[in-house]
Amino acid sequence: MQLLDGKVVIVSGVGPGLGRECAVAASREGASVVLGARRQENLEKAAAECDPDGKTVAWKATDICDQGQCDALVATAVERFGRVDGLVNVAAFDSAFGGIDSSVDEWRQTLETNVIGTLQMTRAAAGAMKESGGGSVVMIGSQTTFWPAPLSPQLIYGASKGALASAVRFLNRELGPSKIRVNNVVPGWMWGPPVEMFVDYMVQTDGITREEAIGRITGPMPLGEMPSDGDVANAVVFFLSDWARAVSGQMLFVNGGDFPH
Length: 261
Description:
By secondary structure, the protein is an alpha/beta fold. The protein has a seven-stranded parallel sheet with strand order 3-2-1-4-5-6-7, with helices on both faces. Helix 1 packs parallel to helix 2.
């Protein structure tokens, strides 16, 4: 038996990285998946990977900063599959770099997307989950909230994910009586398209090999290996599944054991 047999899972932010991996992992474990993202080409590609026949996948172009579009994505899930059992909040603005002197416009965009947009998506899905008798919301956090990465400073991104870590605690209390669990998967460095681009950047700017660049990142990790997008997606599947039926308000780091002291 697959972990998500019979469940209907919405995944926001389905691009070439973690969102796609979460959608594919949920589909692999038996869920019907409903995909949301702003770019139609990303949705079409991910939908084909989940189910080429289209029987257990649906998608709708969605900007989570628009409450109406969040509601429409949830309505798509209900109309197509009859219910909503899970939501994975992957959609995020993660390209704001720098510290206190970085762009205020990027601060606003980051907070608008990562905090308000995510909560709008959660609000839309929670209503449908209540009708289904419960469900699971999974936030995607960031280790930068707790231990800022010296190689890649992201003040406002870390702050936005910190806000979501706080929201998990509040939502756990608020939605728990409706049998809706809310948890937080927190990646550290995660091998996927964004980190691959950063590694290539270090190679070009520092004149080092690709192996040396990766070594700078993985050096502090006790496991000696950077988790992949797929590793993080597997943690998400656990929280979506009935194996986590008594787990809510929790935070799970997927970081190769990398806890700075």
